[in-house]
Amino acid sequence: MFLEKMQQRNPELIETAFYLHRKEILEANTYILDLDQIKANAALMAKEAAHYNFKLYFMTKQLGRNPLVAKAISAAGIEKAVAVDPWEARTLAQAGIKLGNVGHLVQVPDTMLAEIIFYQPEIMTVYSLAKAKRISEIALAQGKVQPIMLRIYSPDSFNYQGQMGGISLTELDKFVTEIIKLKGITLAGLTAFPCLLFDYETKVIKTTPNLELVVKTAADLAQKYGIKIKQLNTPSVTCQKTISMLAEVGATHGEPGHGLTGTTPYHAYADQGEKPALLYLSEVSHLLDQQAYIFGGGFYSRSHLKYALAAGDNYQVESKLYSASQPAAEMIDYYAALDNSSAKLKVGDTALLAFRTQIFVTRAQVAVVSGIQTGKLKLHGIYNSQGQLLSKKEELL
């Protein structure tokens, strides 16, 4: 999905990936993260957000919850993280990363609430009165008042299957009257997801009804109850391009994830803004019926995979794009297939892919590399998909 843009905008990462595999420094089923470019992308968004007085929390699930990269993003100007689930929150907090938003898209189980509240997240998203009450009880026990944010929806809301839940607009008044009685929490935010979507036909980022719902509901709560909602959090496709769109309608917060690696759907067509900073490395395993099968483990069902760039030792001359396909979502991704009707691919050849991914749901490895843009390569370490260090290389290449 992103290979052609990668060739145009970050060819150095492609060259590095070929080099590291041909030298047997990295193995198949490894994502390579361009640390310097991710920092540059984060700094670009941080500068744009500051211009509009807009706040950002960075997402790391698509990066495999990598603590080293998280620290680099924080240093680049996006100081706090949003954790998609409490296990990501734990990984980041234990690595010293400040938490912005926890509980969206995945609620915090009751058995983990005390731990997460102890980490002092700036805000926690809740879907139910029962969860709000438990947060209040535990926060009081810790001598705190925990700010919370409500995920809201209406009959017009757009929702993804598997991500349903929140406070119905029809029940909101009843909910708020109960919430304001609780002493251990304060209602500080509203959110919905997704608030923006990329239209593949028009190649334009468009708003969803969720965005208007968040903004309008905040105004209604101020009028009815005198509640000032400080945070109107409007995630999805957050990047330099969309910050002004969100700020101008009254939103206050966004949560860049794929924007950090230049891999939102918008970036497959963009010639400006964040540059692609992530590649998946594989290798030809075997050949069969005009297909070259490459090792899997890191594919994702919504990847929009189209091509792979592949070659052997003479990659600087012979590398070319091959049509690629991965198994259906109900199958395990032991392999993906490249069209080898030209019969040019060989067992052991390097295959590079750039597609929309979520590393945290894969079984891939993650290599963090700096110096790609300057030619002074440094492999900082190899991690698993959950952000745990497997091998600390810390070597110049």
Automatic annotation (TrEMBL):
Question: Which SUPFAM superfamilies does the record cross-reference, listed alphabetically?
Answer: PLP-binding barrel (SSF51419)
What the entry lists under InterPro entries is as follows: Ala_racemase_N (IPR001608), PLP-binding_barrel (IPR029066), YhfX-like_C (IPR048449)
Record-annotated YhfX-like C-terminal domain positions: 279-378
Q: Give the Alanine racemase N-terminal domain ranges.
A: 34-265
Q: Which domain of life is it from?
A: Bacteria
The name under which this protein is listed is Predicted amino acid racemase
Origin organism of this chain?
Halanaerobium salsuginis
